[in-house]
Amino acid sequence: MAELHHADSADRFEVRVTADSHFGWIRTRLSLERTMMSWVRTAAALIGFGFAIVQYLDRLQQLPDARPAYFPNAPRGLGLALIGCGILALAVSLRQYWWTARYLSGGTFAPIAGMRTDGMQSPVVAIAILLFCIGLFAFFAVLFRVA
Fold first, then answer.
1. What one-character-per-residue DSSP string does 4-44 give?
2. How crowded is residue 99: how many other Cβ atoms within 10 Å of its Cβ?
3. CB 89 within 8 A of CB 131
4. Hey, which end of the chain has fewer CB within 10 Å, N or C?
5. Angle between helices 123-143 and 74-105 (to 10 degrees)
6. What is the pLDDT of residues 89-102, one digit of tens each?
7. How does DSSP assign 89-125, residue by residue?
8. Are 142 and 54 in contact (CB under 8 A)?
9. Over the stretch 99-134, which tens digit does the pLDDT of each residue have?
10. Per-residue pLDDT for 141 more than 90?
C-alpha cells in the first residue's frame, strides 16, 4: 500500500508568474470576497428577520382584540433559531474565508499574488465580525428577555 504524505496542496500545480496567472489570482481572490459578502448578506437577513419576527408576533399577541396564541413561545423559539442560524453562518463562512485567503496568499501562490507577507486586509471581515457581535447581542437579548 502506498504511503500518503501530507504536502501542501498547492504543490500539485505548476505556478508560472505571468500577467495571466496574476490576474487569474486576482479574479479568484475577488470571487472569495463576493462569496463572503453573500454570506454576510444572508446572515444579516437571518438575524434581522429572526429579531423582527419575535418583536412583531409578541406585539401582535398584546393587542386587546387578539386571541390567545396556541403556542405563545413559538415566535421566541423561531426567532432564536433564525438568529442562531445567522450567527452560525457567519462563524462557518469566516473560518472558510480565512482558510481560503491564507491558501491563496501563501505557498507556491505567493509569487503570483504579488502581495506582502501580511496579506490583503478586507473590510468584509470587519463587517462580518461586527455583525457576528450584533447577532450575539440579539440572540441573548431575545433569550434573556423578561416578558
1. P----GGGGS----SHHHHHHHHHHHHHHHHHHHHHHHHHH
2. 10
3. no
4. N
5. 160
6. 999 999 999 999 88
7. HHHHHHHHHHHHHHHHHSGGGHHHHT--TT----HHH
8. yes
9. 998 888 877 777 787 766 565 678 999 999 999 999
10. yes
| DSSP run (H or E) holding 78 | helix 74-105
Amino acid at 98: W
Give the end-to-end CA distance of the chain in Å, rounded to a whole number: 64
Contact 26, 114 (CB under 8 A): no
Q: How long a stretch of residues is the chain?
A: 147
Question: Hey, what's the cell of 20?
Answer: 495571466
Lookup result for grid cell 452560525 = 88
- Rg, Å, the chain Cα set: 22
Model pTM?
0.78
Give me the torsion for CA of 99, 103, 105, 106, rounded to 10°: 120
Residues contacting 119, CB < 8 A, separation 6+: 101, 102, 105
